[in-house]
Amino acid sequence: MLRPHRAGLRLEPGAMRTRARRDGDGWLLLGEKAWITNGSVADVAVVWAKDDDGIVRGFLVNKGTPGFSTVEHRGKYSLRASVTSQLVLSDCRVPETDRLPMVAGLKCPLGCLTQARYGIAWGALGSALATFHAALDYARTRKQFGDRPIASHQLVQERLVWMANEITKGQLMVWRLGRLKDEGKATFVQVSQAKRNSCWVARSARV
After folding, report:
1. What is the rounded distance in angstroms from the CA atom of residue 197 to the CA atom of residue 4?
2. pLDDT tens digit string along 42-91?
3. Where are the alpha helices (H) located in 79-187, listed in sequence order?
4. Adjacent-strand bridge partners of 84
5. What are the C-alpha distances in Å from 156 to residues 134, 135, 149, 206?
6. Cβ contacts of residue 159 below 8 Å, gap of 6+?
7. Is the pLDDT of residue 11 over 70?
8. How far apart are CA 169 and CA 131, in angstroms?
């Protein structure tokens, strides 16, 4: 879950507060999950929770299950086309058959985070590329100083070239990472590095 931190919000999977308690031949889930992509539109949610022994378990929760509800996060600064929600589990009962049988610990949820970070590495570069094309189009049509487009000035050209170079380097990085994933050689450290670099490029790619 996302928990408060001095510098903002920090992701701490091991500190999750959602609980799963045995209830006869099923489980009772209690807690909340924040910033869940497509949480209010999905038919099935994958929920991670700690049991009474502190072991992380995975569960499939169907939309419409009693005790399960969602609230959409609104007013986001970015990715506004993506639905982001909060999941609320209030004594939500799920049968034993809806527990992920091979999950006991943080390995699986952390693996899911690694996969999500890989997607973000590509998505952030897509945002950077859209920013570059918007800046390039503007520089070609905005005229100043003797009715010349600002793209004809070296200072603007240098910035546009910098953007193109950083985006291209980022694309090569995640392309190579994809090849490593295909070969089963990619590590979570490499994925995190690619995500960090892509997000930095997206934030820096502006004129």
Report:
1. 24
2. 999 999 999 999 999 999 999 999 999 999 988 887 777 889 999 999 99
3. 107-141, 154-182
4. 37
5. 14, 10, 10, 11
6. 207
7. no
8. 16
What whole-number distance in Å separates Cα of residue 130 and Cα of residue 81?
15
With H, G, I as helix, E, B as strand and everything else as coil, classify residue 80. Answer: coil
Radius of gyration of the chain (CA): 22
Give the strand pairing for 68-72 and 84-95.
Answer: antiparallel
Please state, in angstroms and rounded to a whole number, the distance separating the CA atoms of residues 23 and 127.
46
Q: 178: which 2 tokens?
A: 């994809």
Long-range contacts of 175-184 (CB under 8 A, 24+ apart): 177/118, 177/121, 178/118, 181/118
d(CA 199, CA 76): 17
CA dihedral 22, 23, 24, 25 (to 10 degrees): -70
Q: Which two tokens stand for residue 45?
A: 């949610």
Q: Please name the helix (run of DSSP H) or strand (run of DSSP E) that holds residue 26, with its range, or none.
A: strand 26-37
In tens, the pLDDT along 133-160 reads: 999 999 999 998 888 999 999 999 999 9
* Mean pLDDT taken over the chain: 90
